[in-house]
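User: Fold this; tokens only.

Assistant: Input:
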Amino acid sequence: MNITVKKMKRFLMLKLPSAYLCGVRLREISNTKSVVTVRYKWINQNPFRSMYFAVQSMAAELTTGAMVIKKITKTGRKVSMLVITHKGSFTKKAVGLITFTCNDGNLIDEALKRTIETGEGQTVIMKSVGVNEQGEQVSVYEFEWSLKLKSKK
């Protein structure tokens, strides 16, 4: 199965309804890049008149996780994926349309190759940068993904 923007929209509705309801949307996905947008609105606000950090986290995580899912699917193997750490920093209030971009898809390939060849779990750290409509950075996230080959039981 090929992972597309349309299929990920359905995935969000069914498996991550809070992200979907908050307006998190995958806009672009390739082997190396993923783009997610989310617009500041009532349902995703904080008391400081900007976007709640958890909504930004969901959008940033999707930029990395969507590519991990896409790459795992292409292997045809059963590989588990799990965020084991994440870090976020905030530089500006997130208002308006925020666009998160991850360009680290190439990092997944080597980790998947090693876990399939050796059977040992691997980790990969991927970065997602959020910018506002003026192109100003509002937040940066790093997600450490664990990839492990599932047993054939």
